[in-house]
Each structure stands twice: as C-alpha cells, then as structure tokens.
Specification:
This protein is an alpha+beta fold and 84 residues long. The protein has one domain: 3-Layer(aba) Sandwich (GIY-YIG endonuclease). A three-stranded antiparallel beta sheet has the order 2-1-3. A hairpin with a 5-residue loop joins strand 1 and strand 2. The relative contact order is 0.27.
Length: 84
C-alpha cells in the first residue's frame, strides 16, 4: 500500500517558521487532522499547518525509514523553510 512522508510548516507568534515531519497513508486526511486540533501529534495541535513537501513510497516501512532520515536532516528542512 502506498505511503507518504510529508513536511508541514507553520509560523510561530514570534515569526519563526517551524517544520514537522511525519508519514501517513492518506495525505489529505492527515493534514486535516493536524489542522483540526483534536487529533494529530501534540506538537502540531492548535496551529495552522501547510504542506510544503511530500514523497510517495511503495511501502509503509520505506516511508517510516525516510521519515526518520528527514527528521534528522536539519539542512534539508532549513532549505524548505527558506523557500517559503
């Protein structure tokens, strides 16, 4: 089953852009959950998130492995933020 790795971005009240990396089977549903406030990771609740990057993988395992790599790759996330 296809899985996705995604990067979301939001702006803090101090103007700093923050990113969040995750994986899902359904990008639209997951973004709605993050923006809905009730579900989603604790760090994403109560903010308005925008999808800034996504990758499609053939398996859940590959998506989860890629998510782990992207969470550690601060240079890549910084490049995404600078493009906003």
């Amino acid at each position: 089953m296809p899985s996705f790795v995604y990067v979301l971005a939001t702006q803090n009240p101090d103007g700093r852009i923050v990113t969040y990396v995750g994986w899902t089977l359904d990008l639209e549903r997951r973004l709605a959950e993050h923006n809905g406030g009730a579900k989603g990771a604790r760090t994403t609740r109560g903010r308005g998130w925008v999808l800034i990057y996504a990758e499609k993988h053939r398996t859940r395992r590959r998506a989860m492995a890629r998510e782990y790599k992207l969470k550690q790759d601060r240079t890549f996330r910084s490049l995404l933020r600078s493009g906003l």
